[in-house]
Amino acid sequence: MDCNEARPLLDANADHELTPPQSLDVQRHIESCEACRRESEMVRAMKGAVRTAAYHRAPDELRARIMAALPPVDVAEPQWRAHASDGQTEPRARHRKGWLDWLRLPQGGGFGTLAGEGGVSGADNGAGSAAGWHAGTAWRGGLALALCALVAAGIAVTLHRAGEPAPFVDQLVASHVRAQLSGHDIDVVSSDQHTVKPWFNGKLDYAPPVEDLTASGFPLAGGRLDYVGHRRVAVLTYRHAKHVIDVYVFPEDDPAAGKPGPALVRDGYALARWRDDGMMWWAVTDAAPESLTALQAALSARLRGEAPGAPYPGS
Q1: Above 80 in pLDDT, residue 280?
Q2: What is the fold of 166-315?
Q3: Domains of the chain by residue range
Q4: DSSP states of 238-278
Q5: How many whole angstroms separate alpha carbon 253 and alpha carbon 238?
Q6: What per-residue confidence (pLDDT) applies to 221?
Q7: CB atoms inside a 10 Å sphere around CB 37
Q8: Where is average pLDDT lowest: 53-62, 92-101, 131-140, 298-307?
Q9: Rounded CA gap, 240 and 313, in Å?
Q10: How many CB atoms are closer than 10 A to CB 228?
């Protein structure tokens, strides 16, 4: 295993996500390569700092939003009134119709009736009904609580899906920052797309499109392999003024690719995502978000075979 094969796996190795044979190969390479050993130590130090960082409770506003989104429950607790009538105790329940009415147990035979047991009669009917009511109340309360928990969990999942894919975005930002800090942000250094594109052959299970956007103010600097979304990915590195723009390319049907959407800003880094040429594209930079919009337009034009527009200001 050489550096090009080991470096994309360092992050997964630190998370113990590799198979035992892969982990052994990576560890052997780390022990024999000073540069990869330093990068591995930096990855582990970063993960340790994240694990020891202070965590904050969810804000009260989030709890209020979840509670407000829960459907209303209009069920009054039944009250049993015992009164003597012909030597028997007649149970009575007062309740209002609600969406949880189906949780109510049969009133005749208590909890035992629901289980298919025979009912009781005579003097034992009052005691049996009371016991059945207590058991039924506990049963209904537990089931209602479980149902509310499922609804709350569903709302939380919906809110999360409606928002941004935070874990994946964090991986992209961490990958971009880690590459800049390591001083090894490019594996194949070339502004020639016909040199960069063939370099990925045999290293990935897909062929990423590669375009030089120098005419639009975004010269190609090279490319590298990285490991995000639990797989190897192609990263194209562009320059804009004094800024670096990393462009991550995935097959469109890859679960790790995410979904297209508006530009994001995370920890001071701008991100953009879009779909084009059968691929999903993610761009990360410390430059202004507008530069990613210009890069996306220039790249899409080149992929369609159109002539480049005017260079983006600041190039």
Answers
A1: yes
A2: Phosphorylase Kinase; domain 1 (3.30.200)
A3: 1-55, 66-162, 166-315
A4: EEETTEEEEEEEEETT-GGG---EEEEEETTEEEEEEEETT
A5: 25
A6: 94
A7: 14
A8: 92-101
A9: 10
A10: 22
